[in-house]
Structures are given as structure tokens and as C-alpha cells.
Amino acid sequence: MSKLNFLAAASLLAILSGCTGSTGHKSNEKYYLITTNTKISYWQSAAAGFYKEAKQLDVSGEMVGPDTYDLQAEQAAFDTAISKNPAGILVSAADVNLITPEINKAIAKGIPVLTIDSDAPDSKRLVFIGTNNLQAGVMGGRRLIKELNGKGNVVIYTMPNQSNLEQRMHGYKDTLAEAPGIKIVNTIDIKGDPRVAFDATNDMLKGKIQPDAFVCLEAISCKEVADVLDRNKVKGKVIIAMDTDQGTLDWIKKGGISATIAQKPYTMGYYGLEMLGELFLHKPDVLDHKFGPDTQSPLPVFVDTGATLIDKGNVDHFISERDSAASAGQ
To answer: Is 133-262 in the same CATH topology as 11-131+264-299?
Structure first.
């Protein structure tokens, strides 16, 4: 074979097999981030971290899933991702009953799966990366007790079958047990739709028993609650929100929301892909293994990405830091 033909054959082989770059990764590696409500700011932030790490690793990454809270559509997106045999998958388990079988199916095919934001603890996922949601609920509960001076009726907005929200609820309940004067009088399933929170709050204001506080265990309800109270000129209510949607931050600046608990979705996306990349380079001999109770496991069970409380005292600093990071490309 001539030298020219040899180089051509080598180049073709590299294209077919995927070139290995300086990071040790192949250019044809593909990773997926799967969730619901992909258009909301929380998941756009997670995607920014995910894509940043994909660029650094010189691999391909894609966030897929419905742009509404559609549980079956998330399941379908996961199933489609499995069929493409990717190098790894990050998923937020919006409904553990639907996502757990998908995770187990991927693991059986040799595809590493990590959960972020919302875990599927009974699945065969390798690691959960996200907030310590029990502690997030404790954090919110302590602030709620302080705002109510230990007495009042509370309404909570949530969604069922999401382990992160269930853990936050436990955190709130455990903490509020220290203040018997505070009662949870209603729990609203918003079904992933902020309009449900808006309408339910409107209806409550027409009732005989007026709530003293409103707690949102997810990102999209509390700005709706604040809007309803403002429209009805209702003052003196306490609202404890979740996450840092711009609307939520605006209501904190205006005094309509007392505080919110900020998570780190950018970090979840970034570190989640970093860990998947490491698993691609150093893949365990067997993925279908109970790594959790294994004291010799190379993998942690849980990576806590942290959370912090944002209120009127530090909201401007938070926005400034966020905008600076965005302009610098994080």
C-alpha cells in the first residue's frame, strides 16, 4: 500500500471509529439530559452547565424532553434516547414510577445513567446528583417559623411522585413539628401547570379560612401566588418559594415573596456530565450492581450540589453574580 493510500485508510478508520481527542474522549460520543419543562429557566440553567462541560470534553450533548410537564412524553424521550445507544444519560425523574423501568432498561443495555434534581432511588441508577432536598425543606421551614412567629395556617403547592418534592415536604413537616401553632391546612397538586396555582389561590381567597402563608415546593407556583395576592390587594401574607425564576426574584425585590431556596441546576448539569464522562473512560465492569451498600464501591450514592436562601437582603447580590457569570460564559 502506498503512503498516500495508507493515510487515507487511517483517516477513514478514525472517522468511522470516532476520533479520540486530548481529553481521551471520542468525537462521536453522545450524552443526553432528559427532563420535563425544558423551557423554564431552571432547566435552561442545567442545560448551560451540561453544554459547557460537553464543549470542554469535546463530546456531543443534547437536552431532550417535553417543554411542558408531560410525564409520558419524558418517558418516551428516555426510550428514544436508549434506542440511540448513547455514552450516558442524565435524567430528572419527574415520575419515579415511569422513569425507574427506563433507567433499569438503559443499565441492562450497558448505558450509564445518573439522576439529577429528582432521584429514582429504587432504580439501578449509579449516582444521584442534586440538592439535599430534606435539608432544603428544613431551611424553608425554619424561615417560615420565623416569618409567622410560630403561628399560622399554611398552604403548600407541590406535585406527587417526585422524590425531591416529597423530601422537601418531609423537611418542612419535620421542622414545623417544632412549632405546633403552625398548621398545614391544604396541599395543592399543581400538575406542572402554574395556572392551577393561580386559580387555586384565587379560590382560597374567597373562602372563610384565609391562609397566613404559602409554600411552594417547586419553581413555578409562588410567582403566581404573589400575583394573585397583589391583584386582590392582600397584604401581610408569607410566601416561601423554590428556585430562582426571574419572576420569583422580582417578587422578592418588591416584597411580595419573603424568600426562596436557590438550587444549583447549572452545577447539576455540569458535574453530571463530568461524572458520565469519567464513567465512559473508566467504566465499571458491571453496571447492574448494587453500588450503594457496597463499601468498596468506586461511586458515591449522592453528590450534594448545595442550596442557599435568597431574600430581600441578598437578592441584588445574587442577580449581579448570576449575570456576571452569564456574561463571562460561566
So the answer is: yes
* Residue of 4 and 212 predicted with greater confidence: 212
Please check whether residue 141 is in contact with residue 170, taking contact to mean a CB–CB distance below 8 angstroms.
no
pTM: 0.86
pLDDT at residue 178 is higher than 70: yes
Fold (CATH) for 11-131+264-299: Rossmann fold (3.40.50)
CATH superfamily of the domain spanning 133-262? Response regulator (3.40.50.2300)
| pLDDT, tens digit (0-9, with 9 covering 90-100), for 194-236 | 999 999 999 999 888 889 999 999 999 999 999 999 999 999 9
